[in-house]
Amino acid sequence: MTNKPLNDTIHRVTQRVIANSRDSRAAYLDLMDRESERQVDRTSLSCSNLAHAFAGAEEDQTAIMAAKGPNLGIVTAYNDMLSAHQPYHRYPERMKIWAREVGATAQVAGGTPAMCDGVTQGEAGMELSLFSRDTIALSTTVALSHAMYDGVALLGICDKIVPGLLMGALRFGHLPAIFVPSGPMGTGISNKEKQRVRQLYAEGKATREELLASEMGSYHSPGTCTFYGTANSNQMMMEMMGLHVPGAAFVQPGAKLRQQLSRAATHRLAAIGQAGDDFRPLSRVVDERAIVNAAVGLLATGGSTNHAIHIPAMARAAGIRFDWTDLSELSSAVPLVARVYPNGAGDVNHFHEAGGMGFVVGTLLEEGLAHADILTVWDGGFESYSREPGVDSDGDTLVWRDPGPSGDNDMLRPASAPFQADGGMRLVEGTLGRACFKSSAVERERWTIEAPCRVFDTQRAVNEAFTRGELDRDVIVVVRFQGPRANGMPELHKLTPALGVLQDRGYRVALVTDGRMSGASGKVPAAIHCTPEALGGGPLAKLRDEDVIRICAATGELSTTADLSSREPAEAPPPETGMGRELFAMFRAGADGAEQGASAMLAMAGL
Fold it and tell me: Which domain of life does the UniProt lineage start with (predicted)?
């Protein structure tokens, strides 16, 4: 089938992003050109420098010393507490073997932290979560600062980890880079059953033992959690940007195919370095078109709202300006082609089996909804990502095939006959500022909510009010002082069961917050990432109980009938201490707004 020309809206938004980024992108590319010109030839290092660099390289010492082939730096986010990253334990030793197969060498350049939002959800550690992204980016730059590498293999999957790795690697964008995923865990109990038990527990109708048994049935083995949250949205975006081996995102750990994809990533990274004839530096792969493709993929698949923060931050690291107006305008043109839990019944394993990323890329290209001409890490360009990988009968050779039609029309549909005509990530704005509304997860009859509000400063206070029965009515719950400068902008996922119960009881309920809700935010209408945040006098700080708020995804409205102009803002609660939160004070003080990416690192660097 012949692909249609690029959609007018996508073309227009891309051209606006290019225009808005002209000076900053030119400055970035100029820096990368200078870095490329002065890239250190390892053989020119002093003997002491060089000896330090390969003292632990064992059998690769001679090859590294003589610069016989490219030396690949591995930046790993391995730990075995985080289920998605547990499989990375053996990756470096295997990648060293695979590098030798093509005359290259590989070294672990460094490690980065990797926290699990599922563990810290609703706990003190969640206030470190967003700024762990800056920490990961800084850790990546430290790892690559030794100037020993001709390419970068990035081992990371989950929420802040992929954006942080990419932000750091982009400052070494004169080198090629490939992300190497490890895949999702197998499907556990049904998502509907998991949600049912959570709501029963919130109502006091299920015991803690019953809840724990349910959760263990969901999160049960190595691999990425199987709901379509931020981690799996990360994997989708790396495919849409051409930073994976095609089709690598959702193949499970331990599969023969998974090993062959990782082997292919190592071989390919060795082939696209500066010394070869197919140089593909990261700075040229991640351009304005790739950023737009990432946003298109997010909208088409109903991905995580966290990426309304991460995409602008990743773009800024490459000198690109992308904001919520761009995202919302793209949403008007990009149809929803996937319904993966929590937006549908099946998880990412079902998504992959139904055609997965190969089907998504193919249908978007057919309808002119993505840039086909981006530079990717893989030979063959972005069209290669419209095919699904497999292995031959011997299990030793990768093959790619057309995924064909959707294997499940309740999970995946062509862009010509989608679930809904728009991507379901809407900008709402008005007297309460600007915020994101994920309409793809919410029934259309709940796109507009107008009700008196209850104002809280913590999610704990919300759940306490719910337990006392104070929220059993039509209500818009406002949770403020949750922005990046106030407390690090934690996810407020602990609110989901209580708000879901209220909605199921028949009440008109919504959430307004300057905090985050993630890709697992579910069925309750929510205006999230409100900016300007409450700290510093944002409009949420001036709301009072019973002020009437109107949220409307259809018209893009977020407003109150109350006159806020004469009110003084409420005083923010003092920052909490403990769990290391006090050490992150500099990140909070330096952070910019959610729409700019909520990054202290980028803001303080003037990027």
Answer: Bacteria
Rounded to an integer, the average pLDDT of 338-349 is 89
Cβ atoms of 223 and 185 within 8 Å: the answer is yes
Please state the separation of Cα 186 from the chain's center in Å: 21
- Same domain as 271, residue 236: yes
Contacts by residues 39-44 (CB-CB < 8 Å, ≥ 24 positions apart): 39/147, 39/174, 39/274, 40/147, 40/148, 41/67, 42/67, 42/71, 42/148, 43/67
Whether residue 432 sits in one domain with residue 387: no
CB 438 within 8 A of CB 524: no
Structure tokens at 460: 């704990």
Q: For the segment 389-401, what is each residue's pLDDT rounded down to a tens digit?
A: 999 888 788 999 9
Q: Do 152 and 292 sit in the same domain of this protein?
A: yes
Please tell me the distance from the alpha carbon of residue 353 to that of residue 341, in angstroms, as a whole number.
14
Domain containing residue 496: 426-573
Instruction: Let me know whether 13 and 146 are in one domain.
Output: yes
pLDDT band at 333 (very low <50, low <70, confident <90, very high): very high
3-state SS, residue 501: helix
Residue 453 assigned to a binding site: no
Mean pLDDT on 80-101: 96
Q: What is the CATH number of the domain that holds 448?
A: 3.50.30.80
The amino acid occupying position 490 is: P
Which has the closest alpha carbon to 132: 487, 514, 483, 488? Answer: 488
Helix axes 307-317 and 288-301, enclosed angle (nearest 10)? 170
One domain, residues 390 and 484: no
Measure the CA–CA gap between 592 and 484, rounded to whole angstroms: 8
